[in-house]
Every structure is written in C-alpha cells, then in structure tokens.
C-alpha cells in the first residue's frame, strides 16, 4: 500500500473534511436567503399553521381517541421538512452555484479531495439540521405550548429517523446538484421539486386526506417516510390509523431511507465533477 493511500492519508482527508464543516457552517449563516428559506422556514410555517387552524379545534384520530393541538400535529411534518430543506434544497442549490461561479473548478486545482469536500458539506447539513430541530422543538414547547414526548422510546425513534433522514437528504442534495445547467437555474429547478414533495408527503396536508394515488406516489420518495417516522415519535399511538397502512411501519421507514441513502451516494459518486458539464 502506498503512502498516498495509507492510514495517514485517510486521516488527513478526514481532518480536512472536519475542518471544512466549520467553514461551510459559517458561510451558510452569512447567507440570509439560505437561512430564511431552509433554516427558519419550517418554524415560520409551524407558526402560520398553528395560528391559522387552531380555531377549528384539536385533531383526533377518531371518536374516543386522544386529541392533540393543531401545532402538535404539524410539528413532526415540519421537522421532516426541515431535514429535506437543509439537505436537498440547500446542498443542491449551493453546489450548483459553486459549479456555476467557478468555485468548484478552483477547488479542483487544489489538493482538496472530493471526499473532504463532501464531508464538509454533509457535516454542515448535520450541524445546521441539529440546530434547526432544536430551535423548532424549543419554540414549539415554549411559545406554542406543544407537549413533547416524555418516553425514551419516542426520542430514540426521533434520533434514528433524524440521522437517517438528514444523511439521506444530504446525499440526495449532492446528487440533485448535477441537474441544473447553471447556478442561476438551480433555484428554479430544485425548489419546485421540494415544494411538491412537501405537499404530497403529509407536511402541509394531513396525509390521510390525500387521494390514494397521491399517497402511492409520495411513498416512492423519502420525505413521506421521514414525516411518518417523525409522526411515530411525536404523535399518540392512536394516530397510526391515519397512515396509509394504519401502522407506523417503522421497519419500512428505515428500509426506504436506507435505500434512498444508497441511491444518493451512488448518483453523487457517478455525477460529481469539479468542472461544469458545459465547461
């Protein structure tokens, strides 16, 4: 084994990737539009839905079942949307922009490894995702009076769905960044995809109220499973009857997210280039 590919070189790649996480996070919070449309957007939407629909009363899964507030019902969907926005939307637009303005081409002329570059991007998504979820939960509990789970099992479910969801979203964001032809067109390409997924995946509309054919389409994509996993963690068990199979199906949540994580990893590896496609 050569020194260039030995343990020391791998440690160097990991160290550079770790150092880039801080650089990426700082750059993210210096961009007001990114912070608003990916970091604060779920919090703003939770506030809007809570204020707009609370007058209609609490939500229950049926007669004789436990009722919860409107805000409590929408909280899991907003947590899932936050993961999608932080990973898919943020990275797809960010990397496409870096391709378009020549940043990637310049980085390609340096010793920076693509692995280090990706580690910085993925680590940045995890850091901002954790901060976003913490802020959302804090505001939900203190401002909107939403009761959070007290059972360790619920928080365990939240943890693994969150980790899988953020990792999957980050890799899919990297993969999707290869689709826009330029940085200028990235927003127009990415945001409609993300917005449609939120509407059909039980984020803004109760999933049980969607037509069956739309539920079937949503089930192909990861956001539906992220939202379902979050509902399993935060909603009373009575609410599982409102899911497509009248169960939380956490096993299928894990399978779907792992499958999309692998797809994102493979597509990212096959499509990533330091240069623009038309360069």
From TrEMBL:
User: What keywords are annotated for this sequence in UniProt?
Assistant: Antibiotic resistance, Membrane, Transmembrane, Transmembrane helix
Any stretches that span the bilayer, and where are they? 34-53, 73-96, 125-148, 154-176, 188-207, 250-272
One matching Pfam family is ABC2_membrane_3
- The organism's superkingdom is given as Bacteria
**Membrane topology according to the record:** Multi-pass membrane protein
Q: Name one GO biological process term.
A: response to antibiotic
One cellular-component annotation, GO: ATP-binding cassette (ABC) transporter complex
Domain ABC transmembrane type-2, first and last residues per copy: 33-278
Instruction: Spell out the molecular function terms from Gene Ontology.
Output: ABC-type transporter activity
Q: Where in the cell is it found?
A: Membrane
Official protein name in the record = ABC transporter permease
**Classification of source organism:** Bacteria, Bacillati, Actinomycetota, Actinomycetes, Micrococcales
């Amino acid at each position: 084994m050569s020194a260039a590919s030995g343990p020391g070189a791998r440690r160097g790649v990991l160290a550079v990737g770790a150092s880039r996480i801080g650089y990426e996070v700082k750059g993210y919070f210096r961009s007001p539009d990114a912070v608003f449309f990916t970091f604060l957007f779920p919090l703003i939407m939770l506030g809007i839905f809570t204020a707009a629909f609370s007058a209609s009363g609490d939500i229950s899964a049926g007669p004789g079942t436990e009722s919860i507030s409107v805000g409590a019902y929408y909280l899991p969907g907003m947590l899932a949307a936050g993961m999608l926005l932080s990973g898919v939307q943020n990275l797809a637009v960010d990397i496409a922009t870096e391709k378009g303005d020549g940043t990637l081409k310049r980085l390609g002329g340096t010793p920076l490894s693509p692995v280090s570059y990706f580690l910085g991007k993925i680590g940045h998504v995890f850091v901002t995702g954790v901060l976003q979820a913490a802020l959302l939960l804090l505001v939900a509990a203190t401002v909107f009076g939403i009761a959070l789970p007290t059972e360790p099992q619920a928080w365990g479910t939240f943890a693994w769905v969150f980790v899988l969801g953020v990792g999957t979203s980050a890799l899919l964001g990297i993969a999707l960044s290869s689709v826009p032809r330029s940085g200028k067109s990235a927003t127009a390409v990415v945001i409609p995809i993300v917005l449609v997924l939120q509407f059909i995946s039980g984020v803004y509309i109760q999933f049980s109220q969607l037509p069956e054919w739309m539920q079937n389409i949503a089930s192909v994509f990861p956001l539906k499973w992220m939202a379902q996993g979050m509902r399993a963690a935060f909603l009373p068990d009575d609410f599982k009857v409102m899911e497509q199979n009248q169960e939380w199906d956490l096993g299928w949540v894990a399978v779907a997210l792992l499958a999309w994580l692998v797809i994102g990893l493979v597509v990212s590896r096959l499509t990533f280039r330091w240069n623009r496609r038309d360069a």
